[in-house]
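Appendix B, example 12.
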Amino acid sequence: MNGVIARGQMNQLRGMFRTGWCRLSGNDLGRVSGQMLRLMGKAQVKYGRAKAAAGKQMRKISRH
């Protein structure tokens, strides 16, 4: 697992907590902020996985 994936998963977790807390406290702006943080985390995870796959392909090609 590379650092981008780990940061993305952490952002998703932070977003889930923020969304849940703001739902309990009635803070609508905070809920939106938490949802955006979760979305950003999902994008980071997808980017990290694509980056890892590309690196794996490059290492495979360079061996031959």
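The helical segments are 3-25, 28-63. The mean pLDDT is 93.
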